[in-house]
Amino acid sequence: MNGNVYWMLELEVLPGRNADFRSLMSEMVRSTREREPGTLNYEWNTSPDGTICHIYERYADSDAVMTHLESFGANFAERFLATLKPIRLVVYGAPNQAVQDALAGFGPVYMRGADGFARQGMAA
Question: CA-to-CA distance for 65 and 58, rounded, in angstroms?
Answer without folding.
Answer: 8
